[in-house]
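Box 4.2: Ligand-aware structure prediction
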Amino acid sequence: MTETLAENTVASVHYTGTLPGSGEVFDTSEGRDPLTFLVGHKQMIPGFEEEMMGAKVGERRTFTLEPERAYGQRMEDAVQQIERSQFGDIEPEVGMMLMSDIGPFTVTEVADDLVTVDFNHKLAGETLEFSVEVVELRAASEEELAHGHAHGPGGHHH
Ligand code: ZN
């Protein structure tokens, strides 16, 4: 029996994330299944788990995370210019999100020959506010611990 959110438990939570400045909701599980994750295996941003440690089922917590405990600071060298020809058949447009060998990026500027892209996470450099309610807690299975993620409804499937 798992009483509180702790390392190696599988937690299901409902959450809403807002930007404190504008009040804009950047992500929420409202109207969807709760988010299920294996605690202590880097499935979540670090501050999210730290703030929820010890929470019981039905408990709601509200907390604010500085960028260091969320998606990190923006890195200027993650903004790069790429020859347009490298995009091949893809017609780059501002705001487009694409995948590369080294991770996802966003097109931020398109010129005749050069395309500016940004590898920063869109929430890098942002302070984030969360309201989180624990819906369910259970012990992780051996398979989940071996894989490093939660299985089953709301979790990761193979
Ligand atoms: Zn798995």
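In the box above, the bound molecule is zinc ion. Helices lie at 46-52, 142-147.
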